[in-house]
Design a protein that fits this description.
Blueprint: E1 10-11, H1 12-19, H2 22-30, H3 38-45, E2 51-52, H4 54-64, H5 68-98
Antiparallel strand pairs: 1-2
């Protein structure tokens, strides 16, 4: 099992160990997922909190299924989501600074 800690989440370290298995690589290859770049694959499966839940894995693995075009689109989507979150946080901080004391 990938979740060696038993907390319901997969960290990058757990994912890296999981990806070392030839059976796992074969399974993911059958799903048409590129397993050569472990960190990149983890980041694409993750929602940005540094851990992957079972639901994240299923949802994002299905989005990644296919060739490089699908993978590139998912990467772009994830990057835009992270940028949007950061911009919203920055906007909120500016609003708080602009409020009169």
């Amino acid at each position: 099992a990938a979740d060696t800690s038993g907390d319901g989440m997969i960290t990058f370290d757990e994912f890296e160990q999981f990806m070392a298995s030839p059976q796992v690589k074969s399974y993911l290859a059958a799903l048409e997922l590129d397993t050569h770049e472990t960190r990149e694959l983890f980041d694409l499966l993750d929602d940005g909190d540094g851990r992957i839940t079972a639901q994240e894995f299923v949802d994002n693995a299905l989005r990644l299924k296919g060739g490089a075009k699908a993978r590139d689109l998912v990467f772009m989507r994830k990057t835009l989501e992270r940028l949007d979150t950061g911009l919203q946080r920055t906007q909120s901080e500016f609003r708080q600074l602009a409020l009169p004391a």
